[in-house]
């Protein structure tokens, strides 16, 4: 069983920055891609970013490209999401997720390819 624990959410003004962290345990973290998704009330959970198992390949939703950066530290079993130039429309619960495909580097990431999810962390961006 894999456990994912997010942290780093909070309230920030538009234009500000936050860094989310996700600590993983329960399987060999470094062998699997990781991703971030977000969800607002009444909407489907949407893809934000993903990073391949070795960390060299990253993918982003168009809405966050150029503002968000996903990274991973395999020695710490942690994946990060650096969020800059935040906008009110970035307000959501952000979820960390672990992909089921070992040794995969992208580019095809979908909700159905992630088999473990964290509990989510709230990010609120005020205008």
Put the structure in a nutshell.
The protein is mainly beta and 127 residues long. It has strands spanning 3-7, 10-13, 18-25, 34-39, 46-51, 58-60, 68-73, 78-83, 92-99, 114-117, 121-126.
Describe the overall structure.
The chain is mainly beta. The protein is built from no helices and eleven strands. Strands 2, 4, 5, 6, 9, 10 and 11 form a seven-stranded mixed sheet that branches. A four-stranded antiparallel sheet has the order 1-3-8-7, with no helix packed on it. A hairpin with a 4-residue loop joins strand 7 and strand 8 (78-83). The mean pLDDT is 96.
How much β-strand is present in the residues? over 45%
Net shape:
globular
Helical stretch tally: 0
Would you tell me the structural class of the helices and strands?
Answer: mainly beta
The amount of helix comes to: under 10%
Instruction: Output mean pLDDT.
Output: 96
What is the gyration radius calculated from CA atoms? 13 Å
Give the N-terminus to C-terminus distance in angstroms.
40 Å
Q: Say how many strands there are.
A: 11
**Largest sheet data:** 7 strands, mixed
Low-pLDDT runs: none
User: H/E series, N to C?
Assistant: EEEEEEEEEEE
Write the layout of secondary structure elements.
Layout: E1 3-7, E2 10-13, E3 18-25, E4 34-39, E5 46-51, E6 58-60, E7 68-73, E8 78-83, E9 92-99, E10 114-117, E11 121-126
Parallel strand pairs: 2-11
Antiparallel strand pairs: 1-3, 3-8, 4-5, 4-9, 5-6, 7-8, 9-10, 9-11
List keywords for this structure.
about 130 residues, seven-stranded mixed beta sheet, globular
């Amino acid at each position: 069983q894999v456990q994912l624990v997010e942290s780093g959410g909070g309230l920030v003004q538009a234009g500000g920055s936050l860094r989310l962290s996700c600590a993983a345990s329960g399987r060999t973290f470094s062998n699997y891609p990781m991703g971030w998704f977000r969800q607002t009330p009444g909407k489907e959970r949407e893809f934000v970013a993903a990073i391949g198992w070795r960390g060299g390949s990253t993918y982003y939703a168009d809405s966050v490209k150029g503002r968000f950066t996903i990274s991973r530290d395999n020695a710490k079993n942690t994946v990060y999401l650096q969020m800059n130039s935040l906008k009110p429309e970035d307000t959501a619960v952000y979820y960390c997720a672990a992909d089921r495909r070992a040794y995969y580097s992208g580019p095809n990431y979908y909700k159905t390819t992630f088999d473990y999810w964290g509990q989510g962390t709230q990010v609120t961006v005020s205008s």
